[in-house]
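Task card 7
Instruction: Convert sequence to structure tokens.
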Amino acid sequence: MDLILLQPGDPDFIPATSDTTGGSLIDPQWQDASLKLGRCLELVSVHQGMRLRTAITGEQAHDNTAADRPIITELTCVKYVDNTSVKLYDYCLRAQPLGKGKDQPTVLYIARNSGDKTSNIITLSLRDAIVSEIQFQSHPDDMPTEQFKLNFTEILWTYTVQSTNAETAGNMVAGWSIAQNRPITQFS
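Output:
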């Protein structure tokens, strides 16, 4: 089973005294030493995509025109309603970033249970992430959820290579600056 964690860039988004029994907040006693996690929200699912605006041809202009820009979609996240829900609504309405600048990225960890270990598969780091949309949804046979979208100025994808014994065997990194329309390996 996958474990999807969202760590807001602002360490005060989830208060240290937060009641971890009230929803999808992660118990502060659970730690993965390799990830150095702060306070996180557990997500039910996450979706993100990208595409080129036009088909690649023999000639391609690289002058930052709209036709030359790839489309990187917002991240669509789903979580159960919990004691951070109202704060997400507030941040959305005020367009307040979940973390500001390159030193406060919002980070998503996608991990997989492997035997008795939880191993990180891929990490998505977002610069200046804001909640651009949020929708509440009730369910007849489950707890209510909310789907929200995260917009950002830069993204870094870090894939963690796993060895056969589920130990870390290195990383592969790629990134993109939407603001500058260019590849990056670290936040600018």
